Request: fold
Amino acid sequence: MKRFSVLVVDDEAPARAKVKRLLADDARFVLAGEAVDGTDALARVEALRPDLLVLDVQMPGLTGFEVLESLGPEDCPAVIFSTAYDAFALRAFDAHAVDYLLKPYDAARFGRALDKAHAVLIGGDSEAGRLQALLQDLSRATPARPLERLVVKVGEAWVPLRLDTVWRLSSEDKYVRLYTAQGEHLVRQSLRALEERLDPERFVRVHRGDIVNLEAVAKLEPWTHGDGILVLKDGTTVVLSRTWREAFLERWGMAG
Reply:
């Protein structure tokens, strides 16, 4: 019988110990490892490639949802969430999660969650669509607040990147390239999805494939057919499409 590997992610040692103890009683699963916070989880998912995460939602530094966003739903294992979330958010879990454990839970409830996860893993179903829908529902369930940071890969490590240090975001297939004074980073998200969460007072779309930080714009130069060229403070240039020209000018302070 195939045994599926499990990574346990929780910032509280007693909670990790409880999950490991309960996992040991189920021959269908084997412990791959444990992570003490969200950043640790990103590194261990990449190194261990577990089949299943038992993932705490409320963790300091990086939440369980931010872990999923950083991994990208298509590269994420199946997930059983461990949470103390309110009823509105739990409806999103009911609709889209493999299962969730509402703390405190007992061995019987944990066993039922493993049963559901095992059925999904045996069936070979992709969780990408389910996880993406969950993140979208949860974003609607919580008060809107601009995204302040993203977690990006630097060498072999995952590090937080403040969005106010990003000058430009450019679409590259299924990725977005982030330009900063310290270098460039790729994140596995769509430009449209990121745009919905950026601070509208700071970021504005200027082209089908580009968003710029207004503070990074040094000047605007005319081009052809109503398009323009934005010269950023680092000397690089971005096309300002006529489609987004009016909105950009208004936000930049040139309206009227």
Notes: Residues 72 and 188 are 6 Å apart (CA to CA).
